[in-house]
Amino acid sequence: MLSIRNLTKTYKTGDKALSDVSFDLPKGQVVGLIGPSGAGKSTLIRCLNRLVEPTSGRVMLNDMDVTGLNARDLRRARRRIGMIFQEYALVERLTVMENVLSGRLGYVPFWRSFTRRFPGADIQRAYRLLDRVGLSAHVDKRADALSGGQRQRVGIARALEQEPELLLIDEPTASLDPRTSRQIMRLITEICREDALPAIINIHDVLLARQFADRIIGLQAGRVVFDGPPSQLTDDVLTRIYGAEDWAAMQKCAADDAEDEAQARADADRLLEAL
Ligand SMILES: Nc1ncnc2c1ncn2[C@@H]1O[C@H](COP(=O)(O)OP(=O)(O)OP(=O)(O)O)[C@@H](O)[C@H]1O
C-alpha cells in the first residue's frame, strides 16, 4: 500500500505546487489523477519517487519511508517504483528486448550492465512481458522502428521488468490516437488488477480516466478537490475542478475526436468494400 500524508511542495520560485495532499492507495487500485494545467499533477507523481523533493510530508510505500531515505537507499528504492512516460523515453538505437532489459539496470552490477549481460531469469521475464504486452513478434526490432502504441507497450514492459510495487504513469496516451489510447489504458489497468499493482496515472483525458480508473483524484491549485469513484465524477464536479469554460471546451474536443474516429472508420470500411 502507498500512503501519502500532508505532502507539500513549494518550488524555489515560490510556486506552491502541492498543499497538504493526503491519501492511501491499496494494492491493485488504479487512480486517475486529473486537474487543469498547473494543478500539480506532475509534481505529485515526481514527489512520490523524489525526482522532485517534497518540501514536507511523508510518503510510505509498504514498509519503506520514501521521504526519509538517503541518496544511496533512494537509488535502491526507485527500483521498486516503475515509471511510464508520455514520450516513452526509449533508447532509439536499442532493440525492444534491450529496452525492456534496461528496466533491470538498477539491479545488475555496473560492469554487467555495461557489457549488457543480464541474468537468464531477467531475459526470461522480459520475453514473458513482451508476450503479455503483445510484442512477441518485435523483440529484435529497433525502438525507432515502432509505432507510438508499440513504443508505449515497450515502456510498460520495461517498467514491469523492474518488478515494481508501484507504477507511476505520466500522460501515457498524450501522443496516441483515441483508439490506441484506449488499448493502452486497457492494458495498463488489466495488468495492475492481475498483478495487484497500485498505479497513479496522470491523465489529461477525463473520459479515459472515467472509463478505466478505479478511483479519480482531482487536483486544483495543488489541493485534492475530489477523491472518489468515477461514477461520482459528475458534470458539476468537473466544472468545479476545471471551471465551466474549460470543461465545456474539453467536452467539445472529445466530441470532435469521436466524430473524427467515426469518420476514419467509415472511410476504412468504404475502402475495404471497394477492394
Ligand atoms: N521546476 C519548477 N520550478 C518552479 N515551478 C514549477 C516547476 N515545476 C512546476 N512548477 C509550478 O508548479 C505548479 C504545478 O505544476 P505541475 O507541472 O506539477 O502541474 P500539472 O498539473 O502537471 O500541469 P500540466 O497538466 O500542465 O502538466 C505550476 O504552477 C508550475 O508552474
Give helix % range: 40-55%
Whole-angstrom Rg: 20 Å
What do we call the CATH topology?
A: Rossmann fold
Mean pLDDT: 89
CATH class: Alpha Beta
Give the ligands present. Answer: adenosine-5'-triphosphate
Fourth-level CATH superfamily: P-loop containing nucleotide triphosphate hydrolases
- Structural category is alpha/beta
Based on the coordinates given, report the CATH architecture.
3-Layer(aba) Sandwich
Distance separating the two termini:
54 Å
Number of strands: 10
The low-pLDDT segments are none
What is the string of SSEs from the N terminus onward?
EEEHEEHEHHHHEHEHEEHH
Strand order of the largest sheet: 6-7-8-3-9-10
**Overall form:** flat
What is the tally of helical segments?
A: 10
The major β-sheet equals: 6 strands, mixed
Number of domains: 1
Q: Strand portion, in percent?
A: 15-25%
Descriptive notes:
- The chain has helices at 41-48, 71-78, 96-101, 110-114, 120-132, 148-161, 178-195, 206-212, 235-242, 244-274; strands at 2-10, 16-25, 30-34, 56-61, 64-65, 81-84, 166-170, 199-202, 215-220, 223-228.
- It is α/β, with parallel strands linked by helices.
- It has one domain: P-loop containing nucleotide triphosphate hydrolases (Rossmann fold, 3-Layer(aba) Sandwich), CATH 3.40.50.
- Strands 6-7-8-3-9-10 form a six-stranded mixed beta sheet, sandwiched between helices. It has a four-stranded antiparallel beta sheet with strand order 2-1-4-5, covered by helices on one side.
- The longest helix is centred in the last third of the chain and has 31 residues, at 244-274.
- It is flat, with a radius of gyration of 20 Å.
- The chain starts with a strand and ends with a helix.
- The structure holds adenosine-5'-triphosphate.
- Residues 11, 13, 15, 17, 35, 37-43 line the site of adenosine-5'-triphosphate (ATP).
